[in-house]
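A reminder from the course coordinator: this example appears on the midterm review sheet, so study it carefully.

Given structure:
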């Protein structure tokens, strides 16, 4: 066991600071107290997780969006624990600094706090995650309470909760008009239950700003405007690999084009015999 300093980030910023150990939920709380914003990305495999760790992204989420971007399902509902746990283990093994958060998939926590504890324990033991995330407000407060009391940090997820796409009637903005009060109430309930952060997905910017102001734990926005304490994006959206992205996404690279061009260049060279060259070959 390594004993760490009681001053979580020793005066350093979260992004770019804390280089000699993993980021903790205490560091995130300190960042909120300092008014410091931080970035979060999804990750699902060893090599990209390592790149994001090197880039200093302090929190990596092994999202159930793996259902879409890794497994090719059209919603997040079909993805299972058995499909997500190995991805979480790969991300944990290949990172040294980022706090790794594992998403509890649909059907793995809703039926009871006990079920949530069993599922979360697999992510902590087999996936070596440092925290889990689950979707929903008031209805899952008992789950959050039990996990936190068992020593498992929980990130809550409100607003557009993709696991509820069938009851929401599609992927639409949540918390507009009178629904804003309900969202704020759920956010406060998650904080009371012990969540260390709350994701706000696809909610009006002014509602996210109000929730952020009223919570003492950090909010993490995705399609929630500029006022949340942190931002999260699915990495394939951020890097321009996804074929189609939502209005709230900004792409910082064009990996789709880069990879397609690389694949075409490779294929051309194989066909015309210019790859492999002598320097790529072994001699007897
Ligand atoms: O699964 C996921 O990637 C997520 C984020 C988009 C918040 O839940």
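Designed residues:
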């Amino acid at each position: 066991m390594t004993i760490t300093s009681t001053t979580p980030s020793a005066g350093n910023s979260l992004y770019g600071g804390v280089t000699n150990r993993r980021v903790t939920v205490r560091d995130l709380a300190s960042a909120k107290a300092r008014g410091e914003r931080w970035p979060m990305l999804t990750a699902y495999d060893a090599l990209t997780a390592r790149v994001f760790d090197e880039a200093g992204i302090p929190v990596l989420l092994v999202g159930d969006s793996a259902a879409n971007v890794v497994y090719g399902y059209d919603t997040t509902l079909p993805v299972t624990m058995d499909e997500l746990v190995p991805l979480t283990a790969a991300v944990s093994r290949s990172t040294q600094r980022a706090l790794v958060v594992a998403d509890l998939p649909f059907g793995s926590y809703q039926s009871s706090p006990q079920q949530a504890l069993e599922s979360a324990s697999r992510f902590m033991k087999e996936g070596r995650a440092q925290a889990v995330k689950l979707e929903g407000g008031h209805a899952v407060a008992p789950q959050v309470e039990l996990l936190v009391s068992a020593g498992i940090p929980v990130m809550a997820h409100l607003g557009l909760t993709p696991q509820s796409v069938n009851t929401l009637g599609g992927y639409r903005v949540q918390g507009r008009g009178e629904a804003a009060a309900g969202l704020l109430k759920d956010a406060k309930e998650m904080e009371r239950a012990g969540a260390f952060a709350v994701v706000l997905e696809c909610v009006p910017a002014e509602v996210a700003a109000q929730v952020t102001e009223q919570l003492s734990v950090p909010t993490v926005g995705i399609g929630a405007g500029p006022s949340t304490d942190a931002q999260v994006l699915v990495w394939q959206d951020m890097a321009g690999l996804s074929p189609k992205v939502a209005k709230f996404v900004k792409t910082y690279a064009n990996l789709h084009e880069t990879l397609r061009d690389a694949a075409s260049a490779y294929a051309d060279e194989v066909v015309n015999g210019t790859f492999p060259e002598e320097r790529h070959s072994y001699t007897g």
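The pocket of 3-methyl-2-oxobutanoic acid is lined by residues 42, 61, 63-65, 103, 157, 199, 201, 222, 232, 234 (CB under 6 Å). The longest helix spans residues 255-272.
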